[in-house]
Amino acid sequence: MENNSVLVLPPARRTGGMPLMEALAARHSGRDFDAGRELDMQTLSDLLWAAWGINRRSGRTAPSSHNRQEIELYVFLKSGVYKYDAAQHALLLLIPEDLRASTGSQPFVGVAPVEIALVSDTSKITGKSPQGIIEATYANTGFICQNIYLFCASEGLCTVARALVPKEELAARLSLAPEQIITLVQSVGYLKQ
Ligand SMILES: Cc1cc2nc3c(=O)[nH]c(=O)nc-3n(C[C@H](O)[C@H](O)[C@H](O)COP(=O)(O)O)c2cc1C
Prior knowledge:
This protein is 27% helix and 26% strand. A hairpin with a 4-residue loop joins strand 5 and strand 6. It has a single domain (19-189), classed as NADH Oxidase, CATH 3.40.109.10. The chain contains four helices and nine strands. It has a seven-stranded antiparallel sheet with strand order 1-6-5-4-7-9-8, sandwiched between helices. Strands 2-3 form a two-stranded antiparallel ribbon. The longest helix has 26 residues, at 130-155. The structure holds flavin mononucleotide.
């Protein structure tokens, strides 16, 4: 922790992991999270980089329509809610409270140590109809979610993408602007043994 509001992540390991075909063979959704096992900082760093990190000059690990890069990751940990700053590879503290349980109503929500809400800043998408904006941003969301799925498969982590999210309440809790929409939330943790 560099100061109270910035959690600097260790550099992500950009090598290793499971061979891609084995990760694809292992990918699945899991919901039986181990409440007692948190991700260490290196694994959290690698997860966020794999999800939506910067992998070249201004490029990211997932594509986005017209390279708008409009998705922001809101990361819910026991210690608080953070926004992932890909340029700094850091977590910026937004709310110093455990709000994991407010991201859904399924029984495992609040048990998983990490919840990642994908929030689209639709104001960054120009030149499209309202329907076109939704189509583009949900496609962009899907790439990031699949990155998380494949990273979790590779690391032996449990994950599930969730649309079943109280989006209005959560948006209010996060003080989102009207043009910021929550597209999906993904739970991540270890499987209960
Ligand atoms: C867009 C989307 C929304 C989903 N929403 C939920 C959800 O709210 N809750 C949940 O438990 N699983 C959710 N899932 C996970 C699916 O149920 C799961 O991917 C599907 O059953 C296939 O299982 P698999 O991922 O293990 O192949 C969602 C998946 C996707 C792609």
